[in-house]
Automatic annotation (TrEMBL), chain A:
Residues 364-398 are annotated as: Disordered. Belongs to the RNase PH family. It comes from Anaeramoeba flamelloides. Its main location: cytoplasm. Residues 370-397 have a biased composition (Acidic residues). InterPro entries: ExoRNase_PH_dom1, ExoRNase_PH_dom2, ExoRNase_PH_dom2_sf, Exosome_comp_Rrp42_subfam, PNPase/RNase_PH_dom_sf, Ribosomal_Su5_D2-typ_SF, Rrp45. Keywords: Cytoplasm, Nucleus, RNA-binding. Gene3D superfamilies: GHMP Kinase, N-terminal domain. This is Exosome complex component rrp45. It comes from the Eukaryota.
From TrEMBL, chain B:
It comes from Anaeramoeba flamelloides. This is Exosome complex component rrp40. It comes from the Eukaryota. CDD domains: KH-I_Rrp40 (cd22526). Gene3D superfamilies: 2.40.50.100, K Homology domain, type 1 (3.30.1370.10), Nucleic acid-binding proteins (2.40.50.140). Coiled coil: none annotated. It holds the Pfam family KH_6. Residues 149-197 form the K Homology domain. InterPro entries: Exosome_RNA_bind1/RRP40/RRP4 (IPR026699), KH_dom_type_1 (IPR004088), KH_dom_type_1_sf (IPR036612), NA-bd_OB-fold (IPR012340), RRP40_KH-I (IPR049469). Its main location: nucleus. Keywords: Exosome, RNA-binding. It is found in: Nucleus.
Length: 500, 229
C-alpha cells in the first residue's frame, strides 16, 4: 500500500514557494533538468535521464501485413509501460497508468500526422509485406515529466535504429543479415520534441518540466511538441485550469526555445554514438582483414592468448564471410579488388615457386544470369590443351609440381579440415606420399581423383586464403595464358581428368 | 575466517564463517544457514566488542525495527485507529490511545494527509507495525503532529547520520540559519524555518552533501548561499 496523495505539508509548501517565485530544487521557472543520454550496444537502444526520471527504450522490427486501404504504408508504434519499481513512495494506480496511455497516444498520433517517419519507405512488397516498427519504452524511475523523457527516448531510438536490407527475387523477399549487407537507417524527416508545462494559480504561474511533487500539486497541464524549425506538431491539454490566448502563445514561444536547446543536445549525442559504432565495426573488420595478410604462425604469435581449434574455425569462417561482403575499405586497395573479384568470378589457385604466396587470378567473368554452362566447356578445352607435355618436361615439372602440391595440401588441410571427413583426410595424407611412390592401384587413383575434384570445387566455392601484393598480380598479367596450369593435377598420371 | 573479513566489502551470499551462538550476535544483513553465517546484502562487515556483527550498507527501503523514531503520513481512519504510511510494505497502525494523556473522551484531532513523528512499539515481519506518539515515559518529547514546514525523502544512511549527536553539517547550517528539524529513520526528514527560502536552502544543502566530507560540503553550502542571495 502506498499513499496516493501528497501530505498537506508538502502541498502547502510547494504552493507557497511557487507563489514566491522559487522551485524546490533551485531551478528557475523556465529551466529544464539535466539531460543525459546513453546508447546501448545494438542500434535503437537508448537510456534517457531527465534529472532523476530514467527511461529506457528499444525497437522491435517485424514484418506484418499492411492495412487494405493503405497497402504501401508501414507501421510505426510506441508502447510506454510503467512498472511498480518506478514509484516507491506514491502509488501508481489506474490514474497514472491511464496517464501513460494518454502520453502513448499523443506521441503516436503526432508522429503519424506530422510525418516523422516515412512510412512508405517501410514497404517491402505492397499489399503483402510491410515493416512494423514498435518502440518499447520502459519507465525505470518516475520523478515527474514522463512525457518529455519518453518522447526524447523514442525519437533517439528511431533515428539510431537501422533496418536490414531486403531484396526481392522471384516473388520472394530475402532479408539479409548484418554480415551480408549493410544496415540502413530509417528515413526521418524531423525530430519533434515535447515540452510540458505546469499551470498554477489559474494560469498565472507557468513552470517548465515539473518534477513529481510539483506534478501532484499543479492545477493543470499543457504539453506541446515543437520542431527545431519552429513548427508546432501537437498541443495537448487534458482538463485543468483554463488558459487565455496570451498564455498559450507565451507557452509556444517558450516551447520553441526549449526545443532548440534539447535538439542540439540530441544531435550531438547521436553523431557521437554513430561514429563510435561505425568505427568499432571498422576496427573489428580491419583486425580480421589484417589477420588475413599474414601466415597462420604470425597470427597465432600476435594474439595474446593461445587459440583452441574451435576458435580457429570460427575465425576462418568469419574471414570467409567478410570476403564475400561488398564492403569497401579505402586504405587497403587490395581488399577492394578481391571483393570485387569474388563477386563476379570463378576463382582458381596457382601456386608459384615461392612458398609463402598464393596468387589469385581472374579466370573469366561469369554472368550469373546463366552463362555458366558455356564457361565450363571452355574450361575443359583449356584443360585438355595444356596437357600436352613431352617426357623430358614431365620429369622436370614433376618435382616442382609435387612440391607445390604438398604445399597446397598443407594449406588446404589447415583451412578446410573442418569440411573434410576422416576418410578424406586419410586419403589426402596418402596423396602426399604419391610423389615418392609411383606404384599405385587403380582404386587409389580414382579415389584420389575424386578427392582432388572435391577440393577444387570447394576452393572455387569458398574464397581465397591469402593475398599477394600488387606487383605479383601485375606479373600475372604478363604471364601468358597458355602457361597457366590447373596445378591441382600435378602428377602426369592425373592429367586425363575431365570435369563432369 | 571472520577476523580477516571484518572491515572488507562483502557481496551477498558469501560465507563468512561458522556460527557460534555463544560468541556471536547476528545483526543487519546477516543470515544463518546450515550452521554458518552468510551475508544477504552488499556492504562492509563490522564488528563491535564483544560479540556484535552486522553489515553496513545503504538502501532506501525501510524495514521497521522496534524502538526507532519514524515520520509517517496518515492515510486512513479506521475505527479508533489511524493507518499511517511509513514507506514500508504494510502501513503502520497508530491507535487513538498512543498519545500522551489520551482517554476515551479526549481524542486526537488528526486528519488525513497529516505528518506525524512517532516511535515503533511492535513489528513483526508479517503483521502491521504499531507506532505511538509518545516517549517510554508517556511524554510527548517532540513526538506528535508536525505542522508546516516541508518533508522530503532521502536514503537511510543519510537519516542515520543526521541522528548522530554532533553532525557537522547541521552545526554549520545552524550558525547561519534558524530552523527546526525532525529526522525519521525510515528515510524522511522534516524541516521548518521562518521563510520559504531558508527551508529550500536547507533541503538542498542536505540532499547535495550526501557522502561528502567536511570541506567539500562547506563549499557546496557556500555556493548555495551565494546563488540564493
Amino acid at each position: 500500500m502506498k499513499r496516493q496523495q501528497l501530505s498537506t505539508n508538502e502541498q502547502n509548501f510547494v504552493g507557497s514557494s511557487l507563489i514566491s517565485g522559487r522551485r524546490i530544487d533551485l531551478r528557475s521557472l523556465n529551466e529544464i533538468r539535466d539531460l543525459s543520454i546513453s546508447f546501448g550496444s545494438k542500434y535503437g537502444q537508448v537510456m534517457v535521464k531527465l534529472g532523476k526520471t530514467k527511461v529506457i527504450s528499444s525497437i522491435q522490427a517485424t514484418v506484418a501485413q499492411p492495412f487494405k486501404d493503405r497497402p504501401q504504408e508501414g507501421f510505426c508504434r510506441v508502447r510506454i509501460s510503467l512498472s511498480n519499481v518506478s514509484t516507491i513512495d506514491i502509488e501508481s494506480n489506474r490514474k497514472s497508468q491511464s496517464d501513460t496511455l494518454e502520453i502513448q497516444r499523443m506521441i503516436e498520433d503526432s508522429y503519424r500526422e506530422s510525418r516523422v517517419v516515412d512510412l512508405e519507405s517501410l514497404c517491402i512488397i505492397p499489399d503483402i509485406w510491410v515493416w512494423e516498427i514498435v518502440c518499447n519504452v520502459h519507465v525505470v524511475d518516475n520523478d515527474g515529466n514522463i512525457s518529455d523523457a519518453a518522447n526524447i527516448a523514442t525519437i533517439l531510438s528511431l533515428s539510431h535504429f537501422k533496418l536490414p536490407q531486403v531484396t526481392i527475387k522471384n516473388g520472394k523477399a530475402i532479408i539479409h543479415t548484418d554480415e551480408e549487407k549493410e544496415l540502413i537507417p530509417l528515413s526521418i524527416y524531423h525530430l519533434p520534441i515535447s515540452v510540458s508545462f505546469g499551470l498554477f494559480e489559474k494560469g498565472e504561474i507557468i513552470i517548465v518540466d515539473p518534477c513529481l511533487i510539483e506534478e501532484k500539486t499543479i492545477e493543470g497541464r499543457i504539453i506541446m511538441m515543437v520542431n527545431i524549425h519552429e513548427e508546432i506538431c501537437s498541443i495537448r491539454k487534458g482538463g485543468g485550469t483554463p488558459l487565455t490566448l496570451d498564455q498559450i502563445l507565451y507557452c509556444t514561444k517558450l516551447a520553441s526555445e526549449k526545443a532548440k536547446e534539447i535538439s542540439l543536445i540530441i544531435d550531438r549525442e547521436l553523431e557521437k554514438d554513430l561514429k563510435l559504432k561505425t568505427k568499432q565495426e571498422y576496427d573489428n573488420r580491419h583486425l580480421i582483414s589484417s589477420i588475413l595478410m599474414k601466415d597462420e604462425q604470425t597470427i597465432k604469435s600476435s594474439l595474446p592468448f593461445p587459440i583452441s581449434n574451435s576458435l580457429e574455425e570460427t575465425i576462418l569462417d568469419k574471414i570467409r564471410n567478410i570476403q564475400s561482403l561488398s564492403w569497401t575499405n579505402k586504405n587497403s586497395t587490395i581488399e577492394i579488388e578481391i571483393s570485387e573479384l569474388s563477386k563476379f568470378t570463378n576463382l582458381s589457385l596457382n601456386l608459384e615457386q615461392k612458398k609463402d604466396t598464393v596468387q589469385v587470378i581472374n579466370q573469366k567473368n561469369v554472368d550469373k544470369s546463366g552463362d555458366e554452362d558455356e564457361n565450363e566447356n571452355e574450361n575443359d578445352d583449356d584443360f585438355e590443351a595444356n596437357n600436352n607435355y613431352s617426357d623430358d618436361e614431365e620429369d622436370e615439372n614433376l618435382n616442382q609440381r609435387n612440391e607445390q602440391f604438398k604445399e597446397f595440401i598443407e594449406i588446404t588441410n589447415i583451412l578446410q579440415n573442418q569440411n573434410l571427413s576422416k576418410k578424406e583426410l586419410e586419403l589426402l595424407n596418402q596423396l602426399n606420399s604419391v610423389s615418392s611412390s609411383n606404384n599405385k592401384t587403380n582404386n587409389e587413383k580414382k579415389e584420389s581423383q575424386e578427392i582432388i575434384l572435391n577440393n577444387q570445387k570447394k576452393i572455387q566455392n569458398n574464397e581465397i586464403e591469402k593475398i599477394n601484393s600488387k606487383k605479383n598480380l601485375k606479373k600475372n598479367e604478363n604471364h601468358k595464358p597458355d602457361e597457366i596450369d590447373f596445378s591441382i593435377a600435378i602428377n602426369p598420371q592425373f592429367q586425363t581428368l575431365k570435369k563432369k | 575466517m571472520n577476523s580477516e573479513l571484518i572491515g572488507t566489502f562483502v557481496l551477498p551470499d558469501e560465507k563468512l564463517g561458522e556460527m557460534n551462538s555463544n560468541s556471536m550476535k547476528v545483526g543487519n544483513g546477516l543470515v544463518i544457514s546450515n550452521g554458518s553465517l552468510v551475508s544477504s546484502k552488499c556492504g562492509i562487515l563490522r564488528f563491535k566488542n564483544p560479540d556484535k556483527y552486522w553489515i553496513d550498507n545503504n538502501q532506501k527501503r525501510y524495514t521497521p525495527i522496534v524502538g526507532q523514531p519514524v515520520i509517517g503520513f496518515i492515510t486512513q481512519k479506521v475505527g479508533t485507529e489511524y493507518l499511517v504510511d511509513l514507506g514500508t510494505n504494510i502501513p503502520a497502525v497508530l491507535s487513538f490511545f498512543g498519545f500522551p494523556g489520551a482517554t476515551k473522551k479526549n481524542r486526537p484531532q488528526l486528519k488525513i494527509n497529516d505528518t506525524v513523528y512517532a516511535r515503533i512499539i511492535a513489528s513483526n515481519g508479517t503483521e502491521e507495525p504499531q507506532i505511538v506518539c509518545m516517549d517510554k515515559n508517556e511524554r510527548a518529547s517532540g513526538f506528535g503532529q508536525l505542522e508546516g514546514g516541508y518533508c522530503f525523502k532521502c536514503s537511510l544512511n543519510l537519516s542515520r547520520k543526521f541522528l548522530q549527536p554532533r553532525n557537522k553539517i547541521l552545526s554549520y547550517l545552524g550558525k547561519k540559519l534558524k530552523f527546526e528539524i525532525a529526522v525519521g529513520v525510515n528515510g524522511r526528514i522534516w524541516i521548518n524555518s521562518g521563510s520559504v527560502q531558508d527551508t529550500i536552502l536547507i533541503t538542498n544543502a542536505i540532499q547535495r552533501t550526501e557522502g561528502l566530507t567536511e570541506k567539500p560540503a562547506r563549499k557546496v553550502i557556500n555556493m548555495l548561499f551565494d546563488n540564493m542571495m
